[in-house]
Amino acid sequence: MTTWLITGSSTGLGRALAEAVLAAGDNAVVTARNPGSVEDLTKTYGETVLALGLDVTDDSAIAAVVRAAEERFGGVDVLVNNAGYGYRAAVEEGDVADVERLFATNFFGPVALIKAVLPGMRRRRSGAIVNISSIGARISPPGSGYYAASKAALEGMTGSLRKEVEPLGIRVMAVEPGAFRTDFAGRSLTQSAAAIDDYANTAGKRRKENDTVDGTQPGDPAKAAQALITAIGSDAPPALLLLGTDAVGSFTAVLDAQRAEIDTWRELSTGTDL
């Protein structure tokens, strides 16, 4: 029986994934900043669920959760770093304290969790780590520079981690979802207090008061959860899993544009060698 540790399990993809793995008969350590938001899963699935409070910016809390998982289930087989949130601001508008909190949650929190579970995975020579990124890391929308940067940092680290631990029997995968019907663009979304008029037609269009996306996203979190389970359970999980037709379309468009630009500037780029 596989044991999953899933952060950000109260709503959205984290909740859908928790329900899917539990329904399949696996164990799940489900975490949220408010443990009451995940305790209902214990009533449905009993002893296969360990519901715990976790703020991923608290290193001592991370260590306690991993210890509890090991004591209850013997170890963590799959870590899913799902907890995170969005932040909207033009780069010039971004508040330093806001950005530090964003990176603490979206990047340094996952790193701390990875470092906490890796000793057990290395001992067992097995395990999987899934880092939930965003198509925003690829397309860098105006107004999401800091959020895109936090997810790009997560993906860069994930790529190196994959090469480091693959010889030890540990699989690593980054996931780039598109827009899914979750709280991400609603309750969970934050933004800068300042708004500069010159950015009204770029970053300003994506401020919460102007964004009408929430509730209309095309993605189904339950289907995303099943896709994630299928990918990580395959013989050769992808290094990067895209989720959603919008994610695939956007990613492809970025690749095509980058290829065209590389070709345009190839002569200048290759003329710098000794």
How is the topology of this model organized?
Blueprint: E1 3-6, H1 12-23, E2 27-32, H2 40-45, E3 49-53, H3 59-73, E4 78-81, E5 87-88, H4 96-124, E6 127-132, H5 136-139, H6 145-165, E7 170-177, E8 190-191, H7 221-232, E9 240-243, H8 245-264, H9 266-269
Parallel strand pairs: 1-2, 1-4, 2-3, 4-6, 5-8, 6-7, 7-9
Q: Describe the global form.
A: globular
Supply the number of helical segments: 9
The low-confidence parts are none
The mean pLDDT is 94
Would you tell me the structural class of the helices and strands? Answer: alpha/beta
CATH superfamily: NAD(P)-binding Rossmann-like Domain
Element order, helices and strands? EHEHEHEEHEHHEEHEHH
Number of strands: 9
Distance between the termini: 57 Å
CATH architecture verdict: 3-Layer(aba) Sandwich
Describe the structure.
By secondary structure, this protein is an alpha/beta fold. The chain has a single domain (3-272), classed as NAD(P)-binding Rossmann-like Domain (Rossmann fold), CATH 3.40.50.720. The chain has nine helices and nine strands. It has helices spanning 12-23, 40-45, 59-73, 96-124, 136-139, 145-165, 221-232, 245-264, 266-269, and strands at 3-6, 27-32, 49-53, 78-81, 87-88, 127-132, 170-177, 190-191, 240-243. Strands 3-2-1-4-6-7-9 form a seven-stranded parallel sheet, sandwiched between helices. Strands 5-8 form a two-stranded parallel ribbon.
Q: Would you summarize the structure shown here?
A:
By secondary structure, the chain is an alpha/beta fold.
What distinguishing features does this structure have?
alpha/beta; seven-stranded parallel sheet; 9 helices
